[in-house]
Amino acid sequence: MIESVIRMQGLTKFYGKQRGVIDVDMEVQKGEVFGYLGPNGAGKTTTIRLLLDLIRPTRGKATIFGLDVNEQGLEIRKRVGYIPGELAMYENMRGRDLLTYFAHLRDGVDWEFVEGMAKRLDCNLSQPIRSLSHGNKQKIAVIQAFMHRPELLILDEPTTGLDPFMQREFYSLIAEAKEDGRTVFISSHILPEVERMCDRVGILRAGKLVTVEGVKALKERALRHLEIHFAEQVPKDAFTGITGIRDITVENGVMHCTVVGSLDAVIKAASRFRVENVITQEPSLEEIFVSYYGEGDRT
Question: Which helix (H) or strand (E) covers residue 20, if one does?
Answer without folding.
Answer: strand 18-29
